[in-house]
Design goal:
This protein is α+β, with helices and mostly antiparallel strands. It is built from 5 helices and 7 strands, in the order H-H-E-H-H-E-E-E-E-E-E-H. Strands 1-2-3-4 form a 4-stranded antiparallel sheet. The longest helix has 39 residues. It is elongated, with a radius of gyration of 25 Å.
């Protein structure tokens, strides 16, 4: 057992080598735990969003791929910094660079948190609709409920972008062709 740790650690002392190995194991377990948590947050958000759709209504929202791209950016930054951290620790973790390394890790965790938060806010921006009602949900705002006859003006072109305006002239919603259930929403809008 000692020979294998000496082979791995090279000229390190036995105690330093054991600390290095236990730190590597700890970092690997921490990275796996964080990755599992991120995957749960990403996939769990879709299930929660589907469960939240009221009975008899459909959802109009941005495609989930956009959120996945935001999540992926944070994950790649975080994993890149973690790989560099493992290499840094295995290289002996020079004392002169520890402050900068700590700053990099904190920034990576911050970027990861911001991208997860941003993706979840993107998921909150959605519209539930049927042939009678329109529920508009936005982050940090109460759900606004409109009846179709309250829509005074429709601007834009079907097939690209549509703007809906309330009776008092305020914009209610902008709908893009790339959104999930866009065609069905347009059918309901035309038949109102």
């Amino acid at each position: 057992r000692i020979k294998s740790t000496q082979k791995f650690c090279g000229s390190f002392e036995k105690n330093d080598c054991r600390k290095d190995l236990s730190m590597n194991k700890f970092l690997m377990k921490l990275m796996l735990l964080i990755i599992a948590g991120i995957i749960y947050l990403i996939t769990g958000r879709n299930r929660r969003q589907k469960e939240k759709i009221p009975d008899g209504m459909d959802i109009l929202c941005d495609p989930p791929e956009q959120r996945y791209l935001v999540y992926a950016m944070g994950i790649f930054v975080f994993l890149g910094v973690m790989v560099i951290s493992v290499l840094y620790i295995r290289a002996g973790a020079p004392k002169e660079a520890r402050m900068m390394w700590g700053l990099c890790v904190v920034m990576a965790v911050g970027i990861l948190a911001v991208t997860i938060f941003s993706g979840n806010m993107m998921a909150k921006m959605c519209v539930y609709f049927n042939s009678e009602l329109l529920y508009v949900e936005r982050p940090f705002q109460e759900t606004r409920v409109f009846k179709w006859y309250e829509i005074q003006k429709i601007e834009g072109k079907y097939g690209s972008t549509i703007h809906l305006y309330h009776l008092d002239g305020t914009k209610i919603l902008t709908v893009y062709a790339k959104m999930v259930n866009y065609k069905h929403f347009c059918e309901v809008l035309q038949n109102r």
